[in-house]
Amino acid sequence: MNETFLEVLVKRKTPVTMKVGQILLIILTVLLALLSLGMGAVILLLAVLTGVGAYFTGLLSNVEYEYSYLNKELDVDVIYSMQRRKHLVTYDLTKLEVLAPASSYHLDAYKNRNVKTKDFSSQKAENQNEVYVMYIGGNDKVVFEPTPELIKAIENIAPRKVFTE
């Protein structure tokens, strides 16, 4: 049996609002901690809560997506701060409708569909031909950044449904 296994790791761009929020929470934590020296336990509790908020904001701001291809299935996992992994979804690529770059005219027929959009891209690609859109199963639109090897492996399954221009 011909088995192909590929893994692609894509680091998502950290939103500016997340960075600003984390910095503000850290500043607020320090200020509340200093203020609690003279005020009491309630202010100290608020300082601890904002510190925990800053920690979790930092954890969730460092996100990577991992695409794993094996035997006509594409698994998508999310990795938070290179510590915690969570499986998001598995796509059966035999149900693929189309795979093309986000700027391709091949996607024009699918634009007016009412589908769930899932964005697993880095959100920082300079070239729109690096970002691909996949319609699968009739009700899912997936935005991601595959490597040429992954595109070739998917093209081996459905050669008439994969476009690279």
Describe this structure in words.
This protein is an alpha+beta fold and 165 residues long. It has 3 helices and 8 strands, in the order βααβββββββα. The chain has a 4-stranded antiparallel beta sheet with strand order 1-2-3-4. Strands 5-7-8-6 form a 4-stranded mixed beta sheet, with no helix packed on it. A hairpin with a 3-residue loop joins β3 (73-80) and β4 (84-92). α1 (16-39) packs antiparallel against α2 (41-61). The model has no long low-confidence stretch (mean pLDDT 88).
Summarize it:
With 165 residues, the protein is of the alpha+beta class.
Mean pLDDT: 88
- Roughly how many Å apart are the termini? 31 Å
Note the total helix count.
3
What's the main sheet like?
4 strands, antiparallel
Major sheet: arrangement of strands: 1-2-3-4
Quickly give the structural class: alpha+beta
Low-confidence stretches: none
**Range of helix content:** 25-40%
Order of helices and strands: EHHEEEEEEEH
**Beta-strand share of residues:** 25-35%
Shape: elongated
Q: From the alpha-carbon coordinates, what is the Rg to the nearest angstrom? A: 21 Å
- Oligomeric nature of the chains: single chain
What's the count of strands?
A: 8
